[in-house]
Amino acid sequence: MSSEMIIRRYRASDQGVVTDLWSRAVERAHPFPDGEGRGERARVLRERDLAGAESWVAEREGVVVGLLGPLRGGSAGGDGNRASVGGLFVAPEAQGSGVGSKLLEHAAASHGALSLEVFEGNDAARGFFAHLGFTERGRRTDAETGRPLIALERAAPLKSVGWLHVRDGRLLSVRTRGNDTFYLPGGKYEPGETAREALSRELGEELGLVVPAEELSEAFVIHDVAHGKNGRRLHMTCFTGGPQDIVPAPGREIAEFAWFDRREARERCAPAHSQVVNRLIAQGRMPG
What we know:
Elements: E1 5-9, H1 15-29, H2 39-49, E2 54-60, E3 63-72, E4 83-85, E5 88-90, H3 99-111, E6 114-119, H4 123-131, E7 135-141, E8 148-154, E9 158-163, E10 166-167, E11 170-176, E12 186-188, H5 195-207, E13 216-225, E14 233-241, E15 254-260, H6 262-268, H7 272-282
Parallel strand pairs: 4-6, 9-14
Antiparallel strand pairs: 1-2, 2-3, 3-4, 3-5, 6-8, 7-8, 9-12, 10-11, 11-15, 13-14
């Protein structure tokens, strides 16, 4: 599946299709509990888990292909209060196409640190969550099935902003002093800043550029592993806009700047650059 995906809140009108999706997903993932995906367990999903709780669905071409929820607790501002994820379910025909990871990153963007449980016998799910940076924090026996459950957790993603400036098919990147890796111009938020305000400030500090926040337009969001942060996830909002004919004046933290083509960006830049370059190639802004 390659069509555009949207993430939106669960609605009561989704109940039928979501229950069917959940039933097919859990029967495939862990068919061992008696009545899994049917009967009483389906009633509990409809009447307790989905009713009044915060849940999200992924949709492609008007078809719901994933469910995340219910979500409880959490705060995007830190790790101290983790949001509990009640479940993550992807339609079997949509598995492996990025649905589950996008739902999780959406939850992390608004709730910060996440926690959830997975059956020990669900090897596919354990591998999936490990790939997305979740680590084990404990175990218990599920009272209903008698089978072991593993509690997983992940720290809140590092939130940053980046500027997309392409000249002659090459992407502007900067390197800080004492570091051999290049990044997009930008950085982390200061308390109280919006994403646009943070990027406007960073462009002034890093490159001496005056780019009013209102001139910046959000292009896309990148989720990846943050470089040099021990596997912590990154949530980077990328923007276009501002002057195109620029003469950067690097600030004291910036050792150098450069415009890189596709190969150079992938060899000399942080891991998230690969996703950025792929998106810019898809948009026709960089040569493939």
